Amino acid sequence: MPQDRPVVRLRPNVAAQPLRWGAPWIWADQLVMDRRTKAIPAGSLVELQDAERRPLGLAAFNAGSKIAARMLDADPGAVVDRGWFAARLRRALGLREALFDAPFYRLVHAEADGLPGVIVDRFGDAAVIQPNAAWAEVRLEDLAGALRHVTGVTVVVKNGAGRARGLEGLADETSVLAGALAGPVMVPMNGAVYLADLSGGQKTGIYYDQRLNHAFAARLGRGRRVLDVFAHVGGFALAALVAG
What we know:
Archaeosine Trna-guanine Transglycosylase, Chain: A, domain 4; 8 helices; Transcription Regulator spoIIAA; elongated; alpha+beta; 5-stranded mixed beta sheet
């Protein structure tokens, strides 16, 4: 374990077992928040211990957030570098390739893919990262580099906007980290083709997490007149149009 890695400890009345079983978050009021702990810079990696000083794993720490610690690795000595990110991205990519025929999907869904507070949506040769936690913001260069290496995308956009970042003490910022955008990206989904604005649109440019809802609503609306009131890029409307 790196010699300078600080230690953060659970309060005596906090059960450690859920964390050993995979619980991803530790709230600020569950930790010993003494002056030393509060002085740890936001986004730092810490060894998390239970009240008896037994190691629980590696966590990302932010004393200014209600979610003060996010579990990253069961090994408290793990080194979070480009290779560490690549291993998680390869696993996430394997799962998506088993589900989708084309590279248009949510590649990383935060804690579910072992990258707490991080969203990555893929749009063919482009990807959008939402680093919604301080630890990911600090290590964005390694994350973006691993993403390019594992997936082969040539364009990487940082979408740093939204309420979640504010809760982590992070400023809104959107920028192109690699490559260049030539305009909206065409996204095939549910039989239709959508246009996603990766740098100026809502969220990452499209709501991949609504894909199944779009398809479900389209089946219900088949043969009927459909009004999509909150259209955005036309997720429900275009799916309904294709379904007839």
